[in-house]
């Protein structure tokens, strides 16, 4: 009897470990990224690990809704998206699980990760100005954009957009509530027109002279720098680009990133994938997909447009803080009338 029991246990053990093994050979990835370089990124991971990636790509809100609705039965192992605000939203919905990885701790700077999610590339929020209309000395800091000297010259997208909320979160953390509200009011008072369009529209409006100065993410500028279209070249010739706050806090940095989901059925594969994203090769693919910077310090971007944008000082506020302060920033912007 005893030997039968033992062999039954042994058999069960083989089955269980076989099942675990089979489970780890796939990774279900929910991604709000849609870049060409991502193909190489994913196939390289499968080549290295034998883990096949099932990918579901959709808009971030749609994916978040889906993961939430799937609940404990969700097949999603990893969620990837852009912007600290959106990553923070997933965290607020309690969708992420904690990842313990010495490798990630060693390779990703502490301010670019939280316990729940990790940044894998960075983008900066830059100031662009019309060379004919504005002196660069007047627009060296985000704070300068609220100076009455720039009345009628500032263009910016909606105050409720995550990019501007993240920038406000950085100011709120650094300057406090009163000064951030005064800044937002000054900025609104300087508007050339009501906020509309995306960052690229602001850049084009600056080049066209409709606005003297605007705020835009670095990858939109990098994209234009790489463009061979004559109209884009003309835009870049008409504008100057400022790395803001270089003598103080550094340029505001936002991120792309992701995390392992709390109900991930393939947790080992999920951690392996996140660790892979921090590898030298993957860092180049991941960042280059959207003309961003790698987060691993030893990895050099191989992107001529980023080189053309030059070296800069970046802020070191924790990305988790950026996400958490968004709600307070939205209230400040509402009071300031930044629609
Ligand atoms: Fe964008």
Question: What features would you describe in this structure?
Answer:
The protein has 339 residues and is an alpha/beta fold. The protein folds into two domains: 2-121 and 255-303, 3-Layer(aba) Sandwich (D-Maltodextrin-Binding Protein, domain 2), CATH 3.40.190.10; 122-252 and 315-336, D-Maltodextrin-Binding Protein, domain 2 (3-Layer(aba) Sandwich). The protein is built from 15 helices and nine strands. The protein has helices spanning 2-23, 37-49, 60-70, 84-92, 102-107, 162-175, 177-189, 199-208, 218-226, 230-238, 267-277, 280-288, 304-309, 319-324, 326-336, and strands spanning 26-31, 52-57, 78-82, 118-130, 154-155, 213-217, 239-242, 253-260, 293-294. Strands 1, 2, 3, 4, 5, 6, 7, 8 and 9 form a nine-stranded mixed beta sheet that branches. Helix 2 links the parallel strand 1 (26-31) and strand 2. Helix 2 (37-49) runs antiparallel to helix 12 (280-288), helix 6 (162-175) crosses helix 7 (177-189) and helix 6 crosses helix 15. The radius of gyration is 23 Å and the shape is globular. Mean pLDDT is 92; it is low at 1-22. The chain binds fe (iii) ion.
Gyration radius over CA: 23 Å
* Portion of residues within helices: 40-55%
User: Looking at CATH, which topology of the largest domain would you report?
Assistant: D-Maltodextrin-Binding Protein, domain 2
Ligand set: fe (iii) ion
How many strands, what sense, and barrel or not for the largest sheet?
A: 9 strands, mixed
The CATH class name of the largest domain reads Alpha Beta
Assign the CATH superfamily of the largest domain: Periplasmic binding protein-like II
Low-confidence sequence ranges: 1-22
N-C termini distance: 77 Å
Mean of pLDDT: 92
Query: Helical region count?
Result: 15
Tell me, what's the shape? globular
Label the CATH architecture of the largest domain: 3-Layer(aba) Sandwich
What series of H and E elements makes up the topology?
Answer: HEHEHEHHEEHHHEHHEEHHEHHH
Query: What class do helices, strands and sheet pairing give?
Result: alpha/beta
How many structural domains can be distinguished in the coordinates?
2
Please tally the β strands and state the result: 9
Strand content: 15-25%
Oligomer: single chain
């Amino acid at each position: 009897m005893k030997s039968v029991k033992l062999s039954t246990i042994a058999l069960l053990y083989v089955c269980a470990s076989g099942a675990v093994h089979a489970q780890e050979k796939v990774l279900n990835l929910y991604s709000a990224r849609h870049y060409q370089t991502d193909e190489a990124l994913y196939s390289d991971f499968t080549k290295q690990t034998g883990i096949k990636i099932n990918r579901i790509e959709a808009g971030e809100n749609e994916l978040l809704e889906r993961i939430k609705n799937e609940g404990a039965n969700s097949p999603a192992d990893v969620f990837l998206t852009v912007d600290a605000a959106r990553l923070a939203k997933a965290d607020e919905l309690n969708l992420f699980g904690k990842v313990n990885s010495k490798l990630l701790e060693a390779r990703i700077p502490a301010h670019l990760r939280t316990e729940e999610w990790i940044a894998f590339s960075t983008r900066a929020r830059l100031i662009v100005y019309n060379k004919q209309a504005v002196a660069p000395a007047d627009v060296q800091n985000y704070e300068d954009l609220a100076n009455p000297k720039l009345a009628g010259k500032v263009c910016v997208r909606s105050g409720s957009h995550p990019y501007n909320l993240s920038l406000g979160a950085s100011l709120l953390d650094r300057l406090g509530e009163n000064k951030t509200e005064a800044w937002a009011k000054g900025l609104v008072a300087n508007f050339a027109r009501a906020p509309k369009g995306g960052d690229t529209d602001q850049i084009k409006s600056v080049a066209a002279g409709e606005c003297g100065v605007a705020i835009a993410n670095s990858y939109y500028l990098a994209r234009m720098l790489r463009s061979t279209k004559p109209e884009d070249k003309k835009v870049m010739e008409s504008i100057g680009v400022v790395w803001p706050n270089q003598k103080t806090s550094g340029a505001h940095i936002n991120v792309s990133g992701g995390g392992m989901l709390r109900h991930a059925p393939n947790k080992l594969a999920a951690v392996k994938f996140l660790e892979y994203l921090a590898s030298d090769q993957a860092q180049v693919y991941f960042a280059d997909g959207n003309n961003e910077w790698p987060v691993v310090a030893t990895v050099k971007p191989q992107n001529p447009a980023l080189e053309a944008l030059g070296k800069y000082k970046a802020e070191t506020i924790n990305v988790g803080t950026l996400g958490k302060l968004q709600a307070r920033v939205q209230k400040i912007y509402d009071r300031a009338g930044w629609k």
